[in-house]
Design goal:
alpha/beta, binds pyridoxal-5'-phosphate, about 400 residues, binds iron/sulfur cluster, three-stranded antiparallel β-sheet
Length: about 400
């Protein structure tokens, strides 16, 4: 059965449950301690990319299999054996599965969806650079990911051939940043930059660090949740040479906070790298307060700072994940005051047409005039504050 939304309580219970899908280990003939399993290159090479293999790891009915085959005509599928190992093999609504396994819903492209909903092409002065905000730019260094998230904004471009940038493309992008002194913060993104090997990644980072006006280098990667084995001592030793480095990752559901993922986060933070998390609000995955709270509290316990919570972008074939905007606002309203302030991410819509991220959230202002402002606190009680 494909995943249709079920009764909310049942759903929450199913979502909270963490499972180990042992079929994955027997299929690949490994154990959780095998050297192959712990080797990120092995995991990457053995990514699951077709319905036949997947159907041997989780129970798929014929409707799901045909859904996967149909959507593969438009979008690639790939997920690491590790990610498959944390799926519930018998539950089509497993949050891990919903994020990584295509469905027939992806065929339903809506009129307001686009291949490039954020109009990134328009803000691209040279290939692989997106320069939208005055002081920071995005540098796309890879087209591959450990897994292709079904809700990805760059979904239409994911998995394109060519594992790394050519040295010519790289020189042009670095040249643009070097010649644009207002850029003080570079977001190394993709795809997933950590799918490059250490030497390749180091050439990118070293190139950026050599530019005097580049103060901050940030890396956007889903490795901690999709391929935690990628966070090796050698990688961290390399990155440490180029501080200040920041990393933002993506965890969307508390079931992703496994022992391996928590270790990867701890190792990153122990290397002196501030680690943030950007989640996407996904219907049926994390669009209820209890799941979101468990995720956020789990992240801060792992020393990961929740940074953004995105309203799902208007990318093609992701309509089944989109929540009403009010749903996210309500979750933030319920969490504000209830849990630590630093556990609450900023809810944003990355607006279509290239306007960037716009914060949205609950409104606490009851009224405001020259004399006073009347505010509602998190419990709904009113308080006034006198104007100067
Ligand atoms: C998100 C984003 C950034 C970074 O924005 P911050 O709010 O600083 O995290 C920069 N450029 C582009 C194009 C972006 O989409
Ligand atoms: S890891 Fe990021 S870039 Fe890659 S598919 Fe997922 S959301 Fe897209």
């Amino acid at each position: 059965m494909a995943c249709f939304r079920r009764d909310d309580e049942m759903l929450t219970e199913a979502r909270m449950k963490m499972s180990i899908n042992t079929r994955v280990f027997s299929y690949f003939n490994v154990t959780p301690d095998s050297p192959e399993w712990l080797d990120w290159k092995w995991q990457f090479k053995h990514r699951i990319t077709d319905a036949d293999t997947l159907s041997r790891l989780v129970a798929l009915d014929s409707g799901e299999i045909s859904g996967i085959r149909q959507s593969l005509d438009n979008f690639k599928m790939a997920l690491t054996p590790y990610f498959a190992s944390i799926m519930d093999p018998g539950d089509a609504c497993c949050p891990i599965r919903m994020q990584s396994v295509p469905s027939a819903y992806e065929m339903g492209v809506l009129p307001w969806e686009a291949k490039d909903p954020l109009d990134e092409e328009h803000d691209s002065p040279v290939e692989n650079i997106i320069h939208r905000y005055p002081d920071r730019a995005v540098f796309l260094v890879a087209r591959q990911c450990a897994m292709y998230c079904r809700h990805c904004v760059r979904k239409a471009h994911m998995g394109e051939e060519g594992f790394a940038l050519s040295s010519d493309d790289m020189a042009k992008a670095i040249g643009y940043i070097a010649n644009t002194p207002q850029i003080r913060d570079v977001l190394v993104s993709g795809g997933d930059p950590l799918m490059l090997d250490d030497a390749h990644l180091e050439s990118v980072i070293a190139g950026l660090r050599a530019i005097e006006h580049v103060e901050i280098i940030r890396i956007g990667t889903r490795a901690p949740s999709a391929l935690p084995m990628r966070i090796t001592p050698a990688l961290l030793a390399m990155l440490k040479k180029y501080h200040p480095i920041w990393i933002n990752t993506q965890f969307n559901h508390p079931a992703e906070l496994t022992r391996e993922a928590l270790q990867a986060c701890a190792d990153i933070v122990d290397a002196g790298i501030p680690l943030g998390n950007q989640s996407v609000l996904l219907k049926g995955v994390n669009d209820d307060t209890e799941t979101m709270k468990a995720l956020l509290l789990g992240l801060v316990k792992a020393r990961v700072r929740p940074y953004y919570l995105y309203q799902c972008d208007l990318c093609e074939g992701a309509g089944h994940f989109r929540t009403k905007v009010e749903a996210g606002i309500e979750i933030i309203r319920q969490l504000t005051g209830a849990i630590s302030g630093f556990a609450i991410p900023k809810l944003v819509i990355d607006v279509p047409g290239g306007g960037g991220k716009v914060p949205i959230g609950p409104d606490y202002i009851e009224s405001i005039d020259d004399e006073k402002i009347v505010l509602r606190n998190y419990q709904g009680k009113q308080y006034s504050y006198h104007q100067p």
